[in-house]
Design brief:
The complex is a heterodimer.
Chain A: H1 2-14, H2 17-35, H3 41-48, H4 57-82, H5 91-102, H6 106-139, H7 144-161, H8 166-181, E1 183-184, E2 191-192, H9 206-222, H10 245-267, H11 272-287, H12 300-315, H13 317-323, H14 329-340, H15 347-352, H16 354-377, H17 379-385, H18 390-409, H19 412-430, H20 436-458, H21 465-468, H22 470-502
Antiparallel strand pairs in A: 1-2
Chain B: H1 2-24, E1 29-30, E2 33-34, H2 38-60, H3 74-94, H4 96-110, H5 116-137
Antiparallel strand pairs in B: 1-2
Helix pairs in contact in B: 1-2, 3-4, 4-5
The chains are: A mainly alpha, B mainly alpha.
Chain lengths: ~500, ~150
């Protein structure tokens, strides 16, 4: 009952003309970001951040969430038509979507992806309402030790699930934690690692770091990529976008399974939409009676992963909104934005700002509806964006990043900081250091240190407090369980390396 | 790529020593709770151990020889980086909007778009758009430089 009244309140917030407009802007920008290879949702949210200061935080978050799940819809178009995933999470769609396009069935692939994404989006928003409400009830009993343990668990999951090397994920996380401690220490008032810069006394701002790592670094990396996109010729009129009855029959369970896989994988920190779509593809192939069709144009191979990545984008918002723990780079940028607006995500947000939370949830119903309309009626318009020369796009992204970062604090220092992190991000990308753990640790580092200090104050300095409280002890035990496979992989990797080194090199 | 990975690991190792030394100058515990030196010490130690492990792994695994950056893209990459740095460096002198006009034309030309009508339009429309959005709409006082 409480959920229904909350949703009713949310619809009243989401359906104001201003918020409908922001949802529309968000999903359109998201769709564009999804279509354009190279720019991802974290860069999109970070780029628009400077424009939202002075705006109502609810409207800003409605727009940001729209960018996040809108990008999941957009990424499909390029996967199907040019065999290049516009978004990492659409990579699995290239396998069968492009094959379908070559067989003249691009419309069916895009249609089932749009409808599947819509069903997944709406179902996950409903699941979100129930889960969030339930999680908030539990999290209201959390004290500093539980929060500390929860963050440790989130960090271990992020290290394990992002990137190919957990060791590099760990290094990235530690660099983020280091950045979070730069500035005046809250407890003692002593400056730490400010490198003689007055501007660093208040700490490293997260916006220049996020825009550098995800905006500038992506532009630098894209310079190496192929410029020309080769389209598969496809008739994308509305009537060709509706899947046949046979397509439906083959895809219905894939959509349902994809939704559930996506939603629950999305909740896990570090897993995200790409992992969800990969799992969904693997599950569909395993369950299929004709697995040999996969990779040759199986419609379920498009329906499952596409539903799954959209559900994951909604699921990923749960830990952010209910616990204040972002699990991905995009949600970390959103958390940074919320903190800048003066809102602390977490269970108290539901109590103190119900109109914000329920408004955001209700807006996702609207956003998914808008995206379904866009993806059935305006696909040709979005594909035309791909004809925009990369040179102009790159110049525009750099210009927007520089002016945007400057505008936050009227500071050129922040612009230099962003360029520095752009270079750092470029090398991280090249050397396969995942950037998401760094950003996550930067956003959460201060809260982590504070909750550690508060916990030890509560226990008069005894670290046993983390083990005597059942929730924190269980969360820490879970972190250890998560850590074991990583350590095993690390040690095995080193011993294999030692064996390899014994082989004489020729 | 392996050499680059090893160089980065070495730099990180050096940086971790800097963090540890910095942390030792701050108090580790204060009044029974972690002091300002507690977190940096553990971060520095963790970073040191992890980058040393990565260094060992890099030198002991056989990996295919791949260059870090596609050689043919290096001139464009360096050009892009240098022009962006130059632009930001001249902002205090020329102001945000005029320097942006020069940057847009310069960078788009360098990245391969050589059609003058488009370059000319970009030089006018993009800075105008930025001026209207940031200075007029959002009220951000953009640097004026010598045009103050």
């Amino acid at each position: 009952m409480e959920i229904l009244s909350g949703l009713a309140q949310g619809f009243a917030v989401a359906f104001t003309p201003a918020n409908i407009l922001f949802a529309l802007v968000g999903v359109t920008v998201g769709q564009l970001i999804g279509v354009l290879p190279g720019i991802g949702p974290p860069a999109g949210v970070a780029l628009l951040l400077p424009l939202t200061f002075g705006m109502d935080p609810t409207s800003a978050m409605i727009m940001f969430a729209g960018i996040y799940y809108g990008a999941m819809y957009g990424g499909t178009i390029t996967s199907v038509l040019i065999n290049v995933p516009g978004e990492a999470s659409s990579v699995m769609t290239t396998l069968d979507g492009y094959q379908l396009a070559l067989q003249g069935r691009a419309g069916a692939a895009l249609g089932i992806a749009a409808i599947g994404s819509f069903i997944a989006g709406i179902s996950s928003v409903i699941l979100f309402s129930f889960f969030a409400w339930w999680l908030v009830r539990a999290a209201l009993h959390f004290g500093p030790p539980e929060y500390f343990a929860l963050m440790v668990l989130a960090f271990t999951l992020v290290i394990g699930l992002t990137g190919r090397s957990p060791l590099k994920g760990f290094i990235s996380l530690l660099l983020g934690l280091f950045l979070s401690i730069v500035g005046v220490d809250i407890l003692t008032g002593l400056p730490r690692f400010t490198f003689g810069q007055l501007k660093l006394l208040s700490g490293v701002e997260f916006v220049p770091v996020a825009m550098g790592l995800f905006g500038i670094a992506e532009v630098l990396s894209s310079v190496e990529e192929k410029e020309e996109a080769e389209f598969v010729k496809a008739d994308l009129r509305l009537r060709n976008l509706f899947p046949t009855i046979q397509d439906w029959v083959m895809s219905r369970w894939a959509i349902l399974r994809g939704t559930l896989i996506g939603f629950f994988v999305g909740i896990l920190p570090g897993a995200g939409a790409t992992t969800a779509s990969m799992i969904s593809y693997a599950v569909e192939k395993r369950l299929s009676q004709t697995p040999e069709r996969f990779g040759r144009g199986a419609i379920e191979g498009v329906a499952g992963p596409e539903s799954s990545n959209n559900a994951a984008a909604v699921g990923a918002l749960i830990p952010l909104i209910t616990l204040g723990i972002p699990g991905s780079a995009t949600t970390a940028v959103m958390m940074g934005a919320l903190l800048m607006y003066g809102l602390r995500p977490g269970p108290l947000l539901f109590q103190q700002n119900p109109q914000f939370v329920w408004g955001l949830i209700a807006s996702m119903f609207l956003g998914n509806l808008l995206l379904l309309a866009m993806n059935t009626m305006f696909i040709p318009a979005f594909t035309s964006v791909l004809r925009l020369p990369r040179a102009i796009l790159n110049a525009f992204v750099i210009a927007f990043s520089v002016v945007g970062v400057y505008s936050i604090d009227n500071s050129l220092f922040d612009v230099w900081l962003m360029l520095f992190f752009g270079l750092v991000g470029f090398f991280m990308k090249k050397l396969e250091y995942p950037a998401a753990p760094l950003l996550l640790a930067l956003v959460l580092g201060e809260i982590l240190e504070m909750s550690l200090r508060q916990s030890l104050l509560m226990s008069q300095g005894s670290p046993l407090i983390f083990l005597t409280r059942p929730i924190s002890a269980s969360l820490l035990a879970l972190s250890l369980v998560t850590l074991f496979p990583l350590l095993y992989r690390g040690v095995k990797g080193l011993s294999l390396a030692r064996k390899a080194s014994m082989i004489p090199r020729t | 790529m392996r050499t680059a990975d090893a160089i980065i690991s070495l730099l990180l190792l050096g940086f971790s020593i800097y963090v540890i030394v910095g942390a030792l100058h701050l108090s580790y515990m204060r009044g029974g709770v972690p002091g300002p030196g507690f977190a940096p010490l553990w971060i520095g130690l963790g970073l040191g151990i992890a980058s040393a492990a990565n260094l060992i792994r890099t030198w002991t695994t056989l990996s295919p020889k791949v260059s870090l950056v596609e050689p043919s893209a290096i001139p464009r990459l360096v050009g892009l980086a240098v022009m962006t740095v130059l632009w930001v460096a001249v902002i205090p002198l020329l102001g945000m909007v005029p320097s942006l006009a020069l940057f847009m034309a310069g960078i788009v030309w360098m990245l391969g778009m050589r059609r003058w009508p488009i370059l000319f339009l970009l030089m006018i429309l993009v800075p105008l758009g930025f001026y209207l959005v940031f200075e007029r709409w959002l009220g951000v006082p953009l640097p004026r430089g010598v045009f103050r």
